[in-house]
Amino acid sequence: MNYIIIVGATQALMALGVLLKDKKNNGQHDNILSYLLASIFLHLAISFALNVFWPNSKIHQQFNTFIALAYPGLLWCYIRFLEHKGKPIDILLAMFPSIGASIGYFWIAAYVINHSGELPPFIKLYNSISGYAYTILYIVYPLKILAKTHTIPTFWKLEKRMVRLAASLFLFVGLAFLIISIWTRLSDISVYFNLIHLWLRLIIYSILAVICISIIYVKVSSFLYVHLYQQEQAKPHILDHQHENRLDSSMGKPRYPFAEENERNAGIDYVGILAKVENLMSQHKVFLDPSLTLDILATKVDVSRHHLSETLNQYQEKSFYQYVNEYRIKEVITLMDLYKSKGETINILAMAFQAGFHSKSSFNQYFKKVQGCTPSAYLKAKPHYNLVNT
Length: 390
Description:
The protein is an all-alpha fold. The protein is 74% helix and 0% strand. The chain has two domains: 2-227, Rhopdopsin 7-helix transmembrane proteins; 229-381, Homeodomain-like (Arc Repressor Mutant, subunit A), CATH 1.10.10. It is built from 15 helices and no strands. Residues 229-266 and 383-390 have low confidence and may be disordered.
């Protein structure tokens, strides 16, 4: 038991260290993860202390911890902040059950310390109320989270997997509490109580260790992706963008000036193609995918890459990369304004990657081209430039 607790606590500290090491680049959602990891570490540290100082006390079999009541709520807050919809009140509501239970917890702990490990008579009431709270919170929140994960932007692919894993594990715990509650109502399980409680604690401690490991994996993978993979991928895309920019500037006018006539002659519904493309961009935000190419977009629209390229050139007077990256710039500006209105720290590079850019240089290039200033200047002066009409 102590071995699993130590492993879990160590993983929680390691994950917390990874988050704090890159604190200047962390968003509010990362702060939520820090709260979750700190809670897990405190939970396991208290459990370890109880095992060491009162190894034979009945408190191990009859004392629900208060800290774990916050886990599902904090995970819910995490995805809310990933979508930029989270508010400080969400964190308070997530912590409220845990804060309320902590009053009874420390009251009981003080009694146990003063009475050499003996349990107080009111511990049954505490366990009953906290047990119902566990069952409700560990079923309701995970179900809400699993139903909400599909709305998390594509950029947060690893985070989405981690959230699904954690929510599924929490749901398993909630269902276990529900089954045990029903079982105790239907029959006398006092003979098996100690064994059930032991295995339940082992499972919960193991689940916490798995969640901490998954957080470490996500944060380390994100770091490697941003600082290694993105740099390798940036060079060819920068060259592509520069080449297309030279073509755009050298043409000086639409490549196909007689769009309507060409459409009638070729029988191609360019207007319909453009409508599908703009629906994918505005409603489904396919531009958030960093790997989006002309071929991929053409497949989604169900047209040839040639006809898609013609559509963008004739009706938007833009190349593919120019068209897509202007949507990405608009997304970054929306995020900037949102964060600034909330008074939160703005990480420009993280927003650029979230919007689908491959590199800092290409982002800065298109931002200045679209907005007429650098991202830093935009945030500092907040000039009222018109957003791109895409």
